[in-house]
Amino acid sequence: MEQIQSFFTLLGENEQMIYFVILSIFVGIEVIGGVPTVLHTPLMSGANAIHGVVIVGAIFVMLNTSPDDYISLTLGFFAVLLGTLNVVGGFVVTDRMLEMFKKK
Amino acid sequence: MQHHILSAIYIIASVLFIVGLKMMGNPKSARKGNLISAAGMTAAIAGTIFLHEGEISSIIYILIFLAILIGTVIGWLTAKRVQMTKIPELVSMFNGMGGACAALISLIEFHHLFPLHPAEGIYTEVSSVSTGTLVCIISGLVIGSVSFAGSIIAFLKLNGTLEKPVRLPRYNYINLVILAFVVGVSIQLFFTGHVAVIYTLLTLALLYGVLLVLPIGGADMPVVISLLNSFTGVAAAFGGFLYDNHVMLTGGILVGSAGTLLTIVMCKAMNRPIMQVIFGAFGTHASASAA
Fold first, then answer.
1. Which residue has the higher pLDDT, B33 or B53?
2. Percentage of residues in chain A with pLDDT exceeding 90?
3. Where is the NAD(P) transhydrogenase alpha subunit C-terminal domain (chain A) (predicted)?
4. Domain coordinates of chain A in residue numbers?
5. Average pLDDT, chain B
6. B74 interaction partners in chain A (CB closer than 8 Å)
7. Do B256 and A55 make contact, defined as CB atoms within 8 angstroms?
8. ipTM of this predicted complex?
9. DSSP secondary-structure letter at A29?
């Protein structure tokens, strides 16, 4: 019973967030609707670059780590590095794919 | 004040992501759409770094800039220099990096919550940590790790290193058992908050990612990469929940839902049911033994 109660408490406390998530899901579906087959791969690559936004979380972790916590700093450093690879590599590679399109 | 400016930047970045992705759905505006999303990303990253409130030691800023610099140089050069035919495997690799980033964030946050050697000698009780926080950390870790391990295997397959699909006998059942373990250990972690448990969970999730992609044939790879892509999106969204960060939420969920739909559409275009792609070798195996 207590678990059920805490579940509903969580639901109530995050009501706005949950609406936000539901609407975002529909935006995502709407945005992809009716895309021509040739654009599937570039679109996947572009979406891949966008989820690189996870790097914002990695930067946030670094900013909230104390300077003498070496383990967290090392892990955070790699998190930011990998996140940057995802973002920069993702956008550049998508641009290259779409560049090829134009010439055709 | 800075806090509100950052919120405004996040709103703008979210709108740019949506507009950019929408424009990418049309061959004429696709390239511009990609640049618009990139502009949104740059704004979000710069805002997060420069509009942070509170005293931050300069060593942390140095580390952040160093990581971004190295990542930008490597990412830019690999993306620019790679041969056109090798682009799909590169996309898979970059996707794996995003998954690893999400998993690392969860690991660090876990260590922040449950330090091995707490300063006052008092260990954190699981009950004192909010349910939502723990759920986000665990989900981010599991989904991020599966996406990372799966993407690396997909990369190796497209690369030609792992040419033939590796199929363990009854691999579908093995995968199900491992998945059950992943869920079980996640629940255990939720109630115990023990450091050893989170590393067990990390290992299991990585193993699941490897075994999920190993049996899948080369031709189905784009579909799998698209699926893993949406996984990383969901992992990023859990990070957004964790920090109550709206730009991570919009970005993550947008990719999560758009990526899932894209996976389904790609399957349809190939005329292959999605279940057959993921668990598919079932069918091929049966027909091979029949023939």
1. B33
2. 52
3. 18-103
4. 1-33, 36-104
5. 88
6. 85, 89
7. no
8. 0.90
9. H
Which is nearest to B219 in space by CA: B169, B281, B177? B281
Chain B residues 6-35 with a CB less than 8 Å from chain A: 13, 17-18, 20-22, 24-27, 30-31, 33-35
Top pLDDT among B235 and B84 is at B235
In angstroms, the CA B249 to CA A21 distance is: 8
- B169-225 pLDDT tens trace: 777 888 899 999 999 999 998 888 888 899 999 999 999 999 999 888 777 888 999
Closest CB from B74, B80, B104 relative to A85: B74
CA of B56 vs chain A CAs: smallest distance (Å): 7
Q: What is the band of A85 on the pLDDT scale with cuts at 50, 70, 90?
A: very high
Chain B CB within 8 Å of residue A8 CB: no
DSSP string, A17-62: HHHHHHHHHHHHHHHHTT--GGGHHHHHHHHHHHGGGHHHHHHHHH
Query: B140 to chain A nearest CA, in Å?
Result: 11
